[in-house]
Design a protein that fits this description.
16% strand, single chain, six-stranded parallel beta sheet
């Protein structure tokens, strides 16, 4: 993360989670989800002050502005405790990534947008990108709030499976290498390679990839699922994984977990469910969780004891037809919501989504 992004989140942490900015004039502790106003304009303190005058003190303000010599003075102009933040415009994915992280940290239930009438090309070009990012992220936050209840419900419904037998664990011999398989479009061209070399690796497959592999006659050593909504990938699958263990977060869909006779459980991302498991005396291990199951699958491979791991089918990019997963149609959204990043094979540019790009960053750290 850049220094600018780190400082943005540090300021948010200080205000939103430590005393909630109670020292701001007229501010009071926030009830319910916070509100946000985004202003896009020049790095002028008067613009920030003008917007602050017409919005409630409890409302958060994010001033998105061009980088330049005026930026430090703009940041220094904020009164102590005021719920105002600053984000510099960038032409690459840095600004959008920081905006996404800011929104997911603050988790507002409403975000308005004010635009300065400016001819600055940086501002003009940034406006539609920010508008589009908000149109994508705000519905996602609403779904996340609703899915918190879904994660808790699935976790509680899985109690019978979790407590039915001792928690299963697994280890591999020293020096083993893992092949971690995702369901990217490139997986189709790698199935023969996996079949011929399966005995050389511990094959760990994400759920969607495992289904495609099993249909092609290739059975992975472990199947990993982390999503309470993963049932959609399994609805048409009629096969059987036999004694292949499912590596699952406690919040996965119980209908999918019950398909497997052997399960290795890890703590999911429902704090309420985790507290309940603690009260019940269930010692469920933790594992890395990010926006996609691939991060969890890779962490599991290392927890197994694998010293090396290769990613296969983990494209985190769109193919030439715009598909994001094997067997899927063109990814949702338009070019405003897509980024161009260097490809691994030859460094040529490939298109990816904001979520894929965040997963890529999580894998690289």
């Amino acid at each position: 993360m850049s220094a600018d992004g780190y400082n943005l989140l540090l300021e948010l942490a200080k205000l939103a989670f430590i005393n909630v900015g109670a020292d701001a004039p007229g501010a009071s502790p926030i009830k319910g989800h916070p509100k946000l106003q985004v202003v896009v304009g020049e790095a002028i303190p008067a613009l920030t002050a003008k917007i602050r005058m017409v919005i409630p003190p409890a409302k958060y303000l994010l001033h998105v502005h061009p980088a330049g010599p005026a930026a430090p003075a703009l940041r220094a102009s904020r009164p102590k405790g005021e719920r105002t933040f600053f984000l510099e415009i960038s032409q690459d994915d840095t600004m959008l990534g920081q905006l996404s992280l800011f929104l997911r940290t603050l988790r507002p239930d409403h975000a308005g947008m004010t635009v300065q009438n400016s001819k600055d090309p940086e501002i003009v070009q940034a406006i539609p990108r920010i508008q589009h990012a908000l149109s994508l992220e705000m519905p996602n936050l609403k779904v996340d709030r609703m899915s918190a209840l879904t994660r808790l419900r699935c976790s509680l419904l899985n109690l019978g499976l979790i407590g039915a037998k001792p928690l299963l664990s697994a280890k591999v011999q020293e020096g083993a290498a893992a092949l971690v398989c995702g369901a990217g479009p490139s997986l189709a061209g790698q199935l023969d390679f996996i079949a011929k070399n399966a005995n050389r690796f511990i094959v760990v497959a994400c759920g969607h990839a495992a289904i495609k592999m099993q249909e092609a006659g290739v059975t992975p050593d472990f199947v990993v699922e982390a999503d309470p909504r993963c049932r959609i990938n399994w609805q048409r699958f009629k096969g059987d994984f036999g004694k292949t263990p499912l590596v699952a977060l406690t919040c996965v869909d119980p209908a999918v977990a019950s398909r497997f006779s052997r399960r290795i459980w890890f703590e999911g991302d429902s704090p309420e469910a985790s507290a309940a498991f603690d009260l019940l005396g269930l010692d469920i291990p933790k594992i890395d969780i990010s926006r996609g199951v691939i991060v969890t699958a890779l962490d599991f491979a290392f927890k197994l004891g694998c010293q090396k791991a290769a990613l296969l089918g983990c494209d985190l990019a769109l193919d030439n037809d715009g598909a994001s997963h094997l067997g899927s149609r063109r990814a949702d959204g338009d070019d405003l919501s897509l980024l161009e990043v260097p490809g691994i094979a030859d460094g040529s540019k490939v298109k990816t989504t904001l979520d894929f790009n965040e997963i890529r960053k999580a894998l690289e750290t």
